[in-house]
Design a protein that fits this description.
With 452 residues, this protein is of the alpha+beta class. The protein is built from 16 helices and twelve strands. It starts with a helix and ends in a 38-residue tail after the last helix.
Length: 452
């Protein structure tokens, strides 16, 4: 009997050692994130159903559980649901990306303060590496996830759910379970579930809920009789690879608890930057196109400089509304290659505006415009002259780079819209329709809440 006790203790110790050495991932995201952000500064909305609309107030992109209970769904056009929304007293908001990005930063910084490694996956969700934390004890890891949720709720005001598992795909699936079943109190830890509960959970979950399985793949799997996550997990890995390729095989292994997708603390640098947006209404003049391109280029350059690169190629796109039947159609997708790569706003904006003026045609009603940058090089190589004949050009670019560095400092201190190019003010006809836009108390001095 004493030997059994010693053996059990040894096995217990080995289990914890394996858990401490094996990868353990956390996935945490904000519940109905856009709607939760809207509720932060509007206490009157916390008991009402809330929906948030897409660009130009087109369709529903986010909704609270109260709104879902009314039968509303994501993707429904606003004009179709307008009567129901009004009858049911649903609060309707335009997308306020500036507010959402600000709250996202606060939420992710709060989470980063409690775990050693973090991957920012999207505006409302992160992955974390819990390997070796709390000695791999599942119960203590669950308690840690609860403390993270509590701190985010207290410090930021956003409700969250979390999943813990030996792979990122399973962790995301566990987060889905945490949202779906309130009995878990916001956290599902795969390591704490028995095999029977795991199989039961996977057996009642549609295969389309798996991260990495899109609509087309889901349809192909369903045509083969694979309806649930459990069906997918029980497939032969070699067959999955032959039939669907290595990417889905990796997903299959992840669902079975084998970590194949590593945490990415530093996301890979973009190979191309594209910024575009549809207009609130069609524009026939060139000024709205110029203004839109100038604004989009400002954001593209900001992203370019954040990853410490310079661009050789500048491009623009603009076109009419392809869904407008009977209207004359015209579209442009053109680019130009600069003699020397650069990352200063003046040079890149000038090149983009030149393309707009060159390819613009009157008599058309334009609905969308944007810019793109590509052929990146490291910023340190951008200002290196290739020959003696390039010295004068490099000197001009160097002066502009120094000016751009000053503009970067102003933007960091006073906000990214403090200084802008004059062409961005040529017209505001192209701006998105956001009739139900809320304030930005975290980023705009004029919107700061006042106590009377």
């Amino acid at each position: 009997m004493q030997n059994d006790f010693v053996c059990n203790n040894i096995l217990h110790a080995k289990t914890f050692l394996l858990l401490a050495m094996s990868p353990i991932f956390l996935h945490i995201d904000g519940n109905s994130f856009y709607c939760s952000c809207e509720r932060l500064f509007k206490p009157q909305l916390r008991t009402r159903p809330v929906v948030v609309l897409s660009n130009n107030d087109g369709c529903i992109v986010a909704l609270t559980k109260e709104a879902k209970a009314l039968g509303l769904k994501r993707g429904v056009p606003f004009f179709q649901a307008k009567d129901v929304l009004q009858e049911q007293g649903v609060a309707v908001m335009s997308s306020n990306y500036e507010l959402y990005q600000s709250i996202s930063g606060r939420m992710q910084r709060t989470i980063a303060g409690m775990i050693p490694k973090l991957e920012s996956y999207s505006i409302d969700e992160v992955f974390g590496d819990l390997t070796g934390i709390e000695d791999g004890d599942p119960a203590r890891l669950t308690a840690l996830a609860q403390r993270i949720r509590a701190r985010v709720r207290q410090w930021v005001g956003i409700p969250t759910c979390a999943g813990i598992a030996p792979s990122k795909t399973l962790a995301k699936l566990c987060d889905h379970y945490a949202k779906t079943y309130p009995a878990f109190n916001g956290v599902v830890n795969w390591l704490e579930l028995t095999d029977a509960r795991r199989r039961r959970a996977m057996g009642m979950t549609p295969v389309g809920e798996v991260w990495g399985i899109g609509p087309r793949t889901r349809q192909k799997l369903q045509a083969m009789g694979i309806e649930t996550v459990l069906d997918f997990a029980c497939m032969d890995a070699a067959f999955v690879r032959r039939r669907f390729g290595v990417v889905l095989e990796r997903t299959h292994r992840e669902v079975n608890g084998m970590s194949c997708i590593a945490l990415e603390e530093n996301l890979p640098a973009r190979q191309q930057i594209v910024r575009s947006r549809s207009f609130s209404k069609s524009c026939t003049q060139i000024e709205p196109l110029l203004a839109a391109v100038a604004v989009h280029m400002t954001e593209a350059v900001r992203l370019l400089r954040l990853q410490k690169c310079a661009a050789h190629t500048v491009g623009v796109l603009f076109h009419t509304d392809p869904f407008r039947e009977g209207a004359a159609q015209y579209g442009v997708l053109e680019s130009t290659r600069l003699e020397a790569a650069c990352a200063d706003l003046m040079t890149l904006t000038s090149a983009a505006l030149g393309l707009v003026r060159r390819f613009y045609k009157s008599g058309f009603a334009y609905k969308k415009a944007g810019v793109f940058l590509s052929d990146f090089v490291d910023e340190k190589k951008a200002l290196a002259p290739l020959s003696l004949f390039d010295m004068e050009k490099m000197d001009v670019l160097a002066r502009r780079e120094r000016m751009q560095h000053s503009l970067d400092g102003i933007a960091r201190r006073f906000g990214k819209r403090t200084v802008t190019v004059a062409s961005a003010k040529l017209s505001d006809e192209w701006l998105m329709k956001r009739d139900l836009l809320s304030a930005c108390p975290t980023t705009n001095w004029d919107d700061i809440l006042k106590v009377s």
